[in-house]
Each structure stands twice: as structure tokens, then as C-alpha cells.
Write a structure and sequence with these properties.
The chain is mainly alpha-helical. The protein has one domain. The chain has 12 helices and 4 strands; from the N terminus they run H-H-H-H-E-E-E-H-H-H-H-E-H-H-H-H. It has a two-stranded antiparallel ribbon with strand order 1-4. The chain has a two-stranded antiparallel sheet with strand order 2-3. Strand 2 and strand 3 form a beta hairpin. The longest helix has 32 residues. The N and C termini lie far apart (53 Å). 46% of the residues are buried. The model has no long low-confidence stretch (mean pLDDT 87).
């Protein structure tokens, strides 16, 4: 079977863009588990909130990028409220407890979204319909913008974690939180900061992805399996692993759909199982100690 090179190129760009969305969603979940040992499935709620706020602000002002900024801010504020009111009380509990709690928050949040915005899917206008020629293939510029946003976010997170005192403290706490506490650092504040950053990135993911889909209250649940795979394959707490894993899953889904659509949904699971058999901690993960 021969494939049209133009279709392959289009699929590669599609895979890069969806991989960028997976990265923005998964990096927060990865850092939350790596640092706080909580399974924060409520990140998918902030993703949905970011998309709906982007829609509402865009309709009210006609400014899509203002809507994206508002969506990211809304995700961060919602995550701050949840961390202060709920997760701060359960950090010492087993990770399974946090997973159940966050899953309940996700479903409760979906109910609130339905109450506020209704159940009818909403379209968000693409900010640009421009096309860019890549080797004879017309590629939507907006998909390239998504890839660029993911690259910039990766660079900023890397710089924050490696070049700032607070970021280095977060990295150290991922390895051993007791040692960081012994240095007199307020780990609780690190938890809060990490949680807010994660929520804001999830809201950003929802905002930038909104024009490519219909904004729907259940959109977070539709991303659950893929984001979870990205986190597990990449390794908990590793931004490099999360980025590489998101790239792999994005390309597998995109090119798999082009080659044989039914296998595209199963292939990521097969890859995840194969990697876990070889490296149980993921591509770049480290063995985690209990809190």
C-alpha cells in the first residue's frame, strides 16, 4: 500500500499539534504526581473550563487570544480553589484516594459546566484560516501555532525548573520531599504553586484546542485515556519524558488513523504496555519513594 506524501505530511503536522495538546495537559498531571503523589484527574476539568471560558470571552469580545488567556487564568484559579479546599487535606492519604477524589471532582465539575453553559456543543472560530505550504502540502497555520505554543511552554517550564531557585526546589522535592523540608523550605507553597501552574496549562490546552473541536462538557473525559498514557510512558515528574511521550502518542494516533483507522486507538495502549515491560517507571521516570 502506497501513501500519498501529502497525506503523510498533513498527518505528521496533525500529530504534532495533537501531541502539543497532550503535552500541555499531561505535564501538569505528571508534576502533580511526581511532587505531591496525587493523581489529579481534575486537570481534565480545568481543560474543559479553559475551553468554555475561551468560547465565552471570544463571543463577548471577538478576541480569541484574549479568550485563551482568560481560559488559562480560569484554569489556574479553579485549581487554586480546589487545592486549598480539598487536596491540601488529603496529601497524606494514599494516591488511590486522591484519584477517586479527583474523579469525583471531574464529574461534579462537568455538572457545573452543564448548568452554566448547557449541554449543546459550542463551536469556537479558528483565529486564522491561513495555509502554509510544506513540501507541496497546504498545512493550516493554526496547527503550527499550537506546535509553537507547546514548544514555548516546554522551554519556559524547563527554564523555570532548572534556572530558578523555586524550580530547583520543586525538582528536589520530586526526588525527596523530606530533604527539602529539612532545608526549611515551605513545601506546602511548592505544592500550591505546582498545582496552579498545572491548572493554568490545562486551561491553556483547552483554549487553544477549542477551535479544532466542538467545545463540549464531556471533552475532558474524551482525553482521559490518552493523557494518562502520555504520563505513564514519559515517566512521572519528567518534562522531557512527557514531551517525548506526547510526541509519540500524537504521531501514533495521527499516522495510525491514516494507515489503518481501527488500530489507531489500540496502538498507544500496546506501546504503553511494551514500554512498561522494559521500563516500569516510564522512559525518563525515576523510582518514587512514598511520602
Amino acid at each position: 500500500m502506497s501513501l500519498d506524501p501529502r497525506l503523510v505530511m498533513s498527518s505528521v503536522i496533525f500529530g504534532l499539534s495533537i501531541g502539543g495538546i497532550y503535552f500541555l495537559l499531561a505535564i501538569g498531571l505528571s508534576l502533580c504526581f511526581g511532587l505531591m503523589r496525587i493523581i489529579s484527574l481534575d486537570q481534565l476539568l480545568y481543560y474543559s473550563i479553559g475551553a468554555f471560558v475561551t468560547y465565552s470571552v471570544g463571543v463577548a469580545t471577538g478576541q480569541f487570544w484574549l479568550g485563551v488567556a482568560a481560559g488559562a487564568a480560569a484554569g489556574g484559579l479553579a485549581s487554586l480553589a480546589v487545592e486549598r479546599l480539598i487536596f491540601r487535606r488529603i496529601y497524606a492519604r494514599d494516591p488511590t484516594f486522591s484519584m477517586i477524589t479527583s474523579f469525583g471532582l471531574l464529574f461534579g465539575g462537568i455538572g457545573i459546566i452543564k448548568f452554566v453553559w448547557g449541554v449543546v456543543p459550542r463551536p469556537v472560530e479558528v483565529p486564522t484560516l491561513a495555509q502554509f505550504d510544506v513540501l507541496g502540502t497546504q498545512i493550516p497555520v493554526y496547527r503550527l501555532i499550537i506546535v509553537g505554543i507547546a514548544v514555548v511552554v516546554y522551554a519556559l517550564i524547563w527554564a523555570f525548573l532548572h534556572r530558578t531557585i523555586v524550580g530547583k526546589a520543586i525538582r528536589a522535592a520530586i526526588e525527596n520531599v523530606e530533604h527539602v523540608e529539612g532545608l526549611g523550605i515551605n513545601v506546602g507553597r511548592l505544592f500550591t504553586l505546582t498545582f496552579v501552574i498545572a491548572g493554568a496549562l490545562s486551561g491553556l490546552a483547552g483554549g487553544v484546542y477549542a477551535p479544532l473541536i466542538l467545545v463540549d462538557p464531556m471533552m475532558g473525559l474524551e482525553m482521559l485515556a490518552f493523557v494518562f498514557m502520555v504520563v505513564i510512558i514519559g515517566g512521572l515528574g519528567s518534562i522531557k519524558g512527557t514531551a517525548i511521550s506526547a510526541l509519540i502518542i500524537g504521531q501514533v494516533v495521527s499516522l495510525g488513523s491514516l494507515i489503518y483507522a481501527p488500530a489507531a486507538q489500540m496502538a498507544p495502549f500496546v506501546i504503553m504496555l511494551a514500554i512498561l515491560l522494559i521500563r516500569p517507571t516510564g522512559l525518563f521516570g525515576v523510582a518514587l519513594t512514598r511520602r
